[in-house]
Amino acid sequence: MPASQFQCVVLSHVPFEDLGSLQSELERRSFAIETIHAATAQFPLPEAAHCDLLVVLGGPVGVYDSEDYPFLAGEIDCLRQRLAARKPTLGICLGAQLMAAALDARVYPGNAGAEIGWFPIQPAAEPAPEWFAPLLAPGLRLLHWHGDTFDLPVGATRLAKSHLYENQAFIVGKSALALQFHPEVTESGLERWYVGHSAELRQKGISVRQLRADARQYAPALREAAARFWKLWLDYIL
Question: Which residue of 178, 185, 190, 194 has the fewest CB atoms within a 10 Å radius of its CB?
Fold first, then answer.
């Protein structure tokens, strides 16, 4: 086993939303991966401030729920300091919303309702970076699973939009990337999502059988595209 060259700290909100396909690329690059459960973490987190890569994953709470979930304030402050230091940072879904909040942008329930399912994204008006291109491939569908959205932070560059929501991805400088959708998911890993989010799916009348059928159809292409994307992006930031 090669010695670890880099350290990645992962802030997790629910166990079943994990690194997915990103983990294998990090392991290939000899990253030491430490997962911290944000809800029980003691902020500030020195390891999150000083690691080579910080990844903030998704979860079912809202950025504006800090009175019920006080850890969110510590998490936003952690991100604010990391982004100010221009250290490599990735936020996925809730993680992207927390990044937006750390950059003083508004995060709020989306007017178009929940976006849950497999949908394409479109490039924003500005040309997307070359490393982002695999996620914009014709015919590719990505998993979306969110009800909240955010305004584009000042100084950020929008990379993608969807039919329902204008802000699906943004970058800040070279080091920070926020993704509202989920390029990391795998078909098998999603089986845990269907259980963990069962109450939400039932409340919204979304068919688990249809989600599973869609994953069977679209997840293989996403896995190939995501593998190229992770490699290109990590080459770019490290």
Answer: 194
Give just the sign of the alpha carbon dihedral 196, 170, 66, 112: negative
25-65 pLDDT, tens digit per residue, is 999 999 999 999 999 999 999 999 999 999 999 999 999 99
Q: In whole angstroms, how large is the CA radius of gyration of the chain? A: 17
Using alpha carbons, select from 110, 232, 224 the residue that is nearest to residue 177. 232
Task: Kindly report the CATH class assigned to 6-237.
Answer: alpha beta
Six-digit token string for 12: 């997790």
End-to-end CA distance of the chain: 21
Indicate the SS3 state at residue 85. coil
**Tokens for 24?**
């294998």
- List CB contacts of 95: < 8 A, sequence separation 6 or more: 11, 55, 56, 57, 58, 178
- How crowded is the C-beta side of 45, counted as CA atoms within 13 Å? 28
pTM: 0.97
Nearest CA to 220 out of 141, 133, 123, 138 is that of 141
C-alpha to C-alpha distance for 103 and 114, rounded to whole angstroms = 24
**Of 16, 17, 25, 134, whose CA–CA distance to 8 is shortest?**
25
Alpha-carbon dihedral 65, 192, 29, 227, rounded to 10 degrees:
-100
63-98 pLDDT, tens digit each: 999 999 999 999 999 999 999 999 999 999 999 999
Virtual torsion, Cα 164, 17, 155, 44, nearest 10 deg: 150
- DSSP per residue, 147-191: SEEEPPPTT-EEEEE-SS-S-SEEEETTTEEEESSBTT--TTTHH
